[in-house]
Every structure is written in structure tokens, then in C-alpha cells.
Design a protein that fits this description.
By secondary structure, the protein is α/β, with parallel strands linked by helices. It is built from six helices and ten strands.
Length: 198
């Protein structure tokens, strides 16, 4: 029998169910081996973009969904913060499905009382959407922030650094002790300017 790890909170992001590169079996093994009070799904759990182009949904992807639903049924609080690839779920923020709460973002309180802002991390895309709706009203052409950033930022390292600093700056503005996000597929847990960045 598998040893079970018991923890207070688990954060998972950028699984991209519906893509061939998804590590569903490894995730399933992890979910089977861990018990938690709260499970956060921090965006891009399902890749709606890819599924619209080509349907790919093997049994292992179904098993992951079933396992999460089973955890919710058995008392784990499951909170889903949609990302840019599963943004179709954002319109259901404030609702619960099968015991899974859907939220735009939220605050997680750690065991030692720190407040962490939990969000996917696609701030640049959201800002881009707001900017372009304003540009459209003014009769100006579409402008891509991400294309601009990718051209401006030559190296991935500096892109990641810029992302971290932008997220930390916004967390500080919100008056929290840190941030938990996904989006850039780069694992990190450190203190940046006195705030926790996960």
C-alpha cells in the first residue's frame, strides 16, 4: 500500500488536461498519495485552447477529474482559479460544481497566519484585454502586449524575472504577505522583497 502524506494545503497549476504532453498519470499518483484540507487548482488545469483545435481526452485525464471530484465529496475543500487556457470557467466564478468552488482569485491564510494571494498569473493578458477594448472604442488597432514583451525581452530568464516582479508588485499593492501563481511553468518558492513568491 502507498504511504499517504497528510498536509494542510496543496496547490496545483498548469496541468493542461487535454494535451498529449500532460503528465496525468504522475498527477494521479500524487493525488492518490496525498490528503489535504484544501486543494487549490491554480489555472490551466484543462487546456480549452487545445481541445478546441483537436479533441484529446484519454482515460487518465478522466481519472484525474474523477479523483479531484472524489476528494471534494470526501471533505477536501477544492478551489478552482481558472487560468487563460481554461478561462471558459471564469464566467462561473462564485459558483460551485460537484463541490468545486470556482473563483477569479482568492486569499489563502497559512497556518502561521500569513495571507497569500492565489491567482493564475495571466495578469498581462487581462491588462491586454482591457487596453484593447479601450483602443477599440477609440478606433485604434489591436496591440499585443505579450508580443511586445516577447520582442522587448530577449531572454526567457529576464521574462520570468519581469513576471515575478510584476506579480510581487501587485501583491504588495493588495496588502498581502505573498502570492501563489502558475502560468509561466517555472517552479519557484522564495522570498522577494519580503513577500513569499510561489
Amino acid at each position: 500500500p502507498q504511504e499517504t502524506l497528510s498536509v494542510r494545503t496543496v496547490f496545483i497549476s498548469d496541468v493542461h488536461l487535454g494535451t498529449s504532453g500532460c503528465q496525468a498519470e504522475a498527477l494521479l499518483d500524487f493525488l492518490r498519495s496525498v490528503e489535504c484540507e484544501t486543494l487549490y487548482l491554480v489555472g490551466d488545469i484543462v487546456d480549452g485552447w487545445q481541445l478546441r483545435r483537436r479533441w484529446f481526452w484519454p482515460q487518465a485525464h478522466n481519472d484525474v477529474v474523477q479523483k479531484v471530484l472524489r476528494k471534494a465529496r470526501k471533505g477536501t475543500r477544492v478551489i478552482f482559479v481558472p487560468g487563460n487556457h481554461d478561462e471558459f470557467a471564469r464566467r462561473y466564478a462564485g459558483h460551485a460544481f460537484g463541490g468545486i468552488e470556482v473563483v477569479e482569485d482568492c486569499i489563502h491564510q497559512t497556518a502561521d497566519g500569513r495571507r497569500l494571494w492565489v491567482m493564475h498569473g495571466d495578469l498581462a493578458l487581462r491588462l491586454n484585454r482591457m487596453l484593447n477594448s479601450a483602443r477599440a472604442r477609440l478606433g485604434l488597432p489591436y496591440w499585443s502586449l505579450s508580443r511586445y514583451l516577447k520582442l522587448k525581452v530577449k531572454r526567457a530568464v529576464s521574462f520570468i524575472n519581469d513576471f515575478e516582479l510584476a506579480v510581487i508588485r501587485e501583491a504588495r499593492r493588495r496588502g498581502v504577505d505573498g502570492v501563489v501563481c502558475g502560468h509561466i511553468h517555472h517552479a519557484e518558492l522564495r522570498v522577494v522583497d519580503g513577500l513569499t513568491y510561489a
